[in-house]
Design goal:
Rossmann fold; five-stranded parallel sheet; 5 helices; 34% helix; 19% strand; globular; Response regulatory domain-containing protein
Length: 151
């Protein structure tokens, strides 16, 4: 289910947000559902509620990201026709402002590609709710502009 962004009350965590917008990109509806189920409505009592924006195509993802209202992007590395690694690289190369980004990969050996793509973190496919939640909390809890560990 894609969210109608016309009625969104959006702010950043530091400003006492009403919600955090999480873009979930995958060509696979089951993967999008697994991500949104893993994250739930709230990751932590210290963070605002989550608003999931599910996107199935690279063009729609880039258009949504270009609005500057996305707080976290979770990209499926196995999506077609463009995987999350390629989309993360395109985001880094083309967008003025890029939110913290997690790429989901089926192979741990692809972590180096995620670093090359500009993604801030990697999580496993199939989705591990504990790993994905902890990774998202880490990225969303960092002060704006803070580098990822090891960056």
């Amino acid at each position: 289910m894609t969210t109608d962004t016309s009625a969104v009350q959006h702010a950043t965590p530091a400003s006492g947000a009403v919600s955090l917008r999480v873009l979930v990109y995958s060509s696979n509806a089951a993967t999008r559902a697994a991500v949104t189920a893993a994250l739930g409505e709230r990751l932590s009592p210290e963070l605002p509620l989550l608003e999931h924006v599910e996107i199935a195509t690279p063009a729609a993802a880039l258009a949504e990201l270009d609005t500057g209202t996305v707080d976290l992007a979770i990209l499926d590395g196995e999506a077609t026709p463009m995987g999350g690694l390629g989309l993360a690289k395109q985001m880094e190369d083309e967008l003025d402002s890029v939110p913290p980004t997690i790429v989901l990969t089926a192979r741990r050996d692809d972590a180096w590609l995620a670093k090359w793509s500009g993604a801030d973190a990697v999580a496993a496919l199939p989705v591990d709710p504990f790993e994905l939640g902890a990774t998202a909390i880490d990225l969303l809890s960092r002060p704006s502009g803070s580098p990822a560990p090891g960056a």
